[in-house]
Amino acid sequence: MVAADGDRGAGVTVRGYFNEDLSPAELEHRTRVADDLTADVRRLVSATVLTDTDDDSVAEARRHIAAATAALQRRTLDSDHFGIRYNSDGSRRHWGNAMVGRRNPIAPPMVLHHDAERTWAEFELGAQYEGPGGLVHGGVLACVLDQVLGSAAEHAGAPGMTGTLTIRYRRATPLGPVRAEGRLDRVEGIKSYATGSVSTADGVTVEAEGVFILPRWARAADGDIRTAGGDA
Ligand SMILES: CCCCCCCC(=O)SCCNC(=O)CCNC(=O)[C@H](O)C(C)(C)COP(=O)(O)OP(=O)(O)OC[C@H]1O[C@@H](n2cnc3c(N)ncnc32)[C@H](O)[C@@H]1OP(=O)(O)O
Questions:
Q1: What residue owns the CA closest to ligand 1's atom 32?
Q2: What's the rounded Cα separation, in Å, for the pair 61 and 140?
Q3: What domain range includes position 175?
Q4: Residue 181 placed within a domain
Q5: Residue 98 placed within a domain
Q6: Contact call for residues 190 and 212 (beta carbons, < 8 A)
């Protein structure tokens, strides 16, 4: 367990780790509040991309958005990021994560599933993820695969920071439902090699290979990397 933000022990300092002591009831409550808020903001983002309404309606919406922002800012976290928050029962939250953060409306969100061999997620990439017309942005697909391959390595017991991610875009990915999956291929010392893909109903559109490296500070401390992972 990390004692406080940044304290990695063994003289190693890394940002982004916070101990919390939430009761199960409080955690459940915060989870529900986060899910509802994030879903609302996600709908707002989508509506912003797709609106074709008149100027008065846009002005009205902006007044509401300003009021909503002010309400949320009445009290904020002590840090400029959500980080990895550890609860008393040992579970972790990384609700700010760009791909899976349950309090991050930028996250699609991907809900990851794991079995003995694979990590996968089925989710929607809508209008806010557009690159070429009607198609998913390539950088978003790289981000998706970074997360899925990294999580697959972590879940298989060989976590690491992304060292190299190689993406092959085989064909365009239309906006809409996708499936992403990854698996750990092999481990060589501190390096984990994972592979995976994104597919649609018509088959694989993107393939990826990643090298995930247990960073020097984790090797120096206790071999326990908690850089990006989390349970919920
Ligand atoms: C739940 C998890 C989900 C995760 C999903 C999201 C993942 C992320 O987004 S992580 C963020 C993006 N990645 C980063 O910011 C990483 C930044 N880079 C670093 O921190 C470091 O360069 C790091 C950790 C990759 C390697 O640094 P360090 O531990 O000092 O490596 P070092 O001791 O020099 O080298 C160790 C070995 O790795 C190899 N190596 C080093 N860097 C790389 C690299 N970028 N790619 C491939 N191999 C590398 C070296 O050649 C060496 O190999 P060997 O032992 O065979 O000689």
A1: 216
A2: 28
A3: 17-220
A4: yes
A5: yes
A6: no
For residues 54-83, give the mean pLDDT: 97
Instruction: State in Å: Cα 194 to ligand 1 middle.
Output: 14
Residue in 214, 218, 141, 216 with CA at minimum distance from that of residue 172: 141
Residue 145 domain flag: yes
Q: Please, are residues 37 and 71 in contact by the beta-carbon 8 Å criterion?
A: no
What is the number of structural domains in the chain? Answer: 1
By alpha-carbon position, which residue is closest to atom 27 of ligand 1?
215
Please report the ipTM that was assigned to this predicted complex: 0.95
Query: In the structure, which protein residues have their CB atom closer than 6 angstroms to any atom of ligand 1?
Result: 146-147, 150-151, 154, 161-164, 191, 211, 213, 215-216, 228-229
Give the helix/strand (H/E) hosting 199: strand 191-200
206 closest CA partner among 175, 177, 186, 179: 179
Q: In the prediction, which pLDDT does 12 show?
A: 43
The pTM of the full predicted model, rounded to 2 decimals, is: 0.90
What is the CATH classification number for the domain harbouring 86? 3.10.129.10
Among 97, 51, 81, 43, smallest CA distance to 230 is for 97
Instruction: Please report whether residue 231 resides in a domain.
Output: no
